[in-house]
Design a protein that fits this description.
This protein is of the alpha/beta class. The protein contains 4 helices and 5 strands; from the N terminus they run E-H-E-H-E-H-E-E-H. The protein has one domain (about 5-110): Glutaredoxin (3-Layer(aba) Sandwich), CATH 3.40.30.10. The protein has a 5-stranded mixed beta sheet.
Length: about 110
């Protein structure tokens, strides 16, 4: 995993995501998920580009079932965009880098 994308778990979600001063993008994934493996390098590239303005986190839904259940995650990959502790946007499935960049810019612009 890239150093700009940090692994998050059920225990630290509140502190790292909900209480974050910066917007946070959480990539909900699982090791067996082929589309997740396709999306992962795109998220890592975006983390390198936008890491100063947005926190990028990954949550393994197999090892951490509480948070995905709380947010109704039914399909992965699933990117949830958090701002001020609330979900501001969500993208389910694999999307192009340009679509994800646009979503991130919209998240930042709302500041």
């Amino acid at each position: 995993m890239a150093e700009n994308v940090l692994e998050i778990n059920d225990g630290c979600f509140e502190k790292e995501v909900i209480q974050s001063k910066k917007p946070v993008i959480v990539d909900f994934w699982a090791p067996w998920c082929a589309p997740c493996r396709v999306l992962s390098p795109i998220v890592e590239e975006l983390a390198s580009s936008f890491g100063e303005k947005v926190k990028f986190m990954k949550c393994n839904v197999v090892e951490n079932p509480v948070i995905p259940t709380k947010y109704g995650i039914m399909a992965i990959p699933n990117l949830m965009f958090f701002k001020n502790g609330s979900v501001a946007h969500q993208i389910v499935g694999v999307e192009s880098k340009s679509i994800l960049e646009k979503a991130i810019k919209n998240l930042i612009r709302e500041d």
